[in-house]
Specification:
The chain has about 210 residues and is of the alpha+beta class. It is built from 5 helices and 13 strands. Strands 8-7-6-10-9 form a 5-stranded antiparallel beta sheet. Strands 1-2-3 form a 3-stranded parallel beta sheet, sandwiched between helices.
C-alpha cells in the first residue's frame, strides 16, 4: 500500500451488501488491483473479464497468495489517485494475457490452467480437448477462442483441428503430405498441415522442402 492510496484489494465473492464482482465493477479505471479470494471457482471468468489480477481459491495457501500479490505488483501501482491516464478496460472476450492462469470452462467447472502447461488442443466430434501437464479437459471453448486467449509467441494453429504449443514439441516427423506429425513431450501426436509446416520451417530456420524450392 502506498501513502495516500490503496494499490491492492482482496475481495470475496460473497460479502454483505455488494458481491465481490459488484464491487470490482464499481472501481475506477486505474484504481486498485483486485484479487478475488473465494471458494467459488465458477465465477473466475467473470472476475477476469472485469479486470481482476488473479483468482485465488479458498482455503488460501500463503505461497499462492504471495504469487497473486507478485502479479498485482507486476501490473504497477494504482493510478486513479494520481490523475494518471490508464488504459481503457478490456471488453469481455479479450485475450487473457499476463494473468498467469487461463480459466477454461469444462463440464466439471472452471479449471484454472497455466498457459505454459498446455501442450496442445484438438477438435474431435465438435468438441475441443485441451491437453495439459495437469490433465486433459473437454471445453466449450473453440480453437479460435483459444488462439485469441493464448500467447501467440508459443501457440500456433497448425491444423484446422489443432492448436500447438511449440515449447512442448519433442520432434517433428515428416509426412508424405508435406506436413509433420508433431510429437509432444508427453508422447501425443499432433498433425501439422503442409502450409503450417512451411511456416514452422521458416520459424525454426530450417531448409526449405523440395515442394518450396524452385
Amino acid at each position: 500500500m502506498r501513502a495516500g492510496g490503496v494499490d491492492v484489494v482482496l475481495l470475496d465473492i460473497h460479502m454483505p451488501g455488494l458481491s465481490g464482482l459488484d464491487a470490482l465493477a464499481l472501481l475506477p479505471e486505474g484504481g486498485p488491483r483486485v484479487i478475488l479470494c473465494t471458494a467459488h471457482a465458477e465465477h473466475a471468468v467473470q472476475a477476469f473479464e472485469h479486470g481482476a489480477v488473479d483468482y485465488v481459491l479458498k482455503p488460501v495457501e500463503p505461497a499462492r497468495l504471495q504469487k497473486a500479490l507478485e502479479r498485482a505488483r507486476a501490473r504497477g501501482p494504482a493510478t486513479a489517485s494520481t490523475g494518471a491516464v490508464s488504459p481503457p478496460p478490456k471488453p469481455p472476450g479479450t485475450p487473457v494475457r499476463g494473468l498467469g492462469r487461463l480459466p477454461i470452462p469444462t463440464r466439471q467447472g472452471i479449471v484454472l490452467v497455466d498457459p505454459e502447461a498446455i501442450s496442445h488442443a484438438s477438435l474431435e466430434d465438435e468438441l475441443v480437448t485441451v491437453f495439459t501437464t495437469q490433465g486433459d479437459f473437454l471445453t466449450d471453448f473453440t480453437l479460435n477462442e483459444l488462439v485469441e486467449k493464448l500467447p501467440s509467441e508459443h501457440f500456433h494453429r497448425v491444423h484446422r483441428r489443432a492448436l500447438l504449443n511449440l515449447t512442448h514439441v519433442a520432434r517433428l516427423e515428416p509426412l508424405d503430405t508435406g506436413g509433420y506429425l508433431a510429437r509432444t513431450l508427453r508422447g501425443h501426436a499432433v498433425e501439422v498441415s503442409r502450409q503450417s509446416a512451411r511456416e514452422l520451417r521458416r520459424m525454426l530456420g530450417l531448409r526449405r522442402g523440395a515442394e518450396e524450392e524452385g
